[in-house]
Amino acid sequence: MPKCPKCEKEVYFAEKVTSLGKDWHRPCLRCEKCSKTLSPGSHAEHEGKPYCNKPCYAALFGPKGFGRGGAESHTYK
């Protein structure tokens, strides 16, 4: 029986959601930053952890500085 990468408990067929090459419980497949529940295939991955595409993944790992949107995206050096 496969184990959920988030809670380490067994994932039964009826509750299984497959994403990032692993089997998850549906409530365990959440964005690491904002905890939004994600659906398989509609999210980004960084170092094996799921993130929602916008805004979390873009803000954490996307390009920095102008162009991402809003004044908060500028990086001061």
Automatic annotation (TrEMBL):
Gene for this protein?
A: crip1
- Protein known as: LIM zinc-binding domain-containing protein
**What is the protein's species of origin?**
Oreochromis aureus (Israeli tilapia)
Q: What keywords were assigned to this record?
A: LIM domain, Metal-binding, Repeat, Zinc
Q: Which residues form the LIM zinc-binding domain?
A: 2-63
Residue spans making up a coiled coil are: none
Question: Would you say which domain of life the source belongs to?
Answer: Eukaryota
Xref: InterPro entries: Znf_LIM (IPR001781)
Q: Which Pfam families match?
A: LIM (PF00412)
Question: Would the keyword Metal-binding turn up in this protein's UniProt record?
Answer: yes
The GO molecular function terms of this record are:
metal ion binding
